[in-house]
Amino acid sequence: MEKNLKAAKEYYQQHYYHEDISNRIKQGVIQSIHRKKRVSMGKRIFYFSSAVIAAFALFIGLAFYSPAVASVAAKVPFLKMIFEFKPVADIVSEALTKKGYKHEGMGVQYSPTKIFTVTIKGSEAYVDKVRPDVTRIVKEILLAREMDAYKIKVERAIERHDQQPTAKEKALMEKQEQIFGIVRNVLISYGYEHESIGMNAANTIELNLPKTETRIDEIKQQIQIKLTEQKLGFHTINVRKYDPEKREREGRWSPIISTIADGIFGSKKFKVTGVGYTNRSAEYMMISIRTSVSSKDSDYKRVVTNIENTILEFLTSKETKAIIKDDAYKITIISKDKKETVITSD
Q: Can you tell me the distance from the alpha carbon of 301 to that of 295, in angstroms, rounded to the nearest whole number?
């Protein structure tokens, strides 16, 4: 089985996956994530759609309906299957395209009801006509992946007409792009090619740099000099410092947390209502899982045990351990009445 998985993974990486696709998917995810998601510097609460897995997970790209893949999938643990096989959003997209249905996108809502939404291009009459077949296709794919917690909603894609920027808006965008170019070049000269650059409504330039950087004042001064030379005016420059070791750890854990969330959110048996994590602790990665069961419910122990066993099986697998290395972790499963079950790496 391991040989088959490895060969399939290599096939997909050679034929389908590359960085541009990853970046486009990430941008799409950012734009489509549920509007109620809240983000803070130390803690993030995630409402994952299957598309998130496309942005971060390892890929295996053999056809979903291939008998060979199906035989392998039957032997693969639940979360490992989600982690290593094609993202369900890709499978749905391919199935709809094969049937000739032009779709604009997909999204997942988790509150108050878990809904998997597909938007189809065409008239209202056309969408009404194809809705039963599209619903059937999506349902079959989700059930094949044990993602039975979703209601399926098929909507008509809203026609959008791109509004052209005014001359003033265009000039502002060009100026900002020039500023970003100057800032980017200065950062590159100091060895930072991939750090994010932002600008808020007050025209303050926002940078992220490691807390180990000792030349921050010099970098800010160089940026200001270059902006002045180009007659772009004076700008306040704010620098947010991050811990390089924690950032590296978070980067490695991202596909793991995404997989856990995608899997246990989508399956009814886990009764999960929320998944979050914090990377603030220096000692360990912390993950919290909220459920809809109370500690007094008759199925409480079964639900919690299911979650615990499924996650431990995934975290202790050879593939996952190669990514998270020797990182310590603490996972807290929280019942509706706040009772906690803790899993640790110790």
A: 8
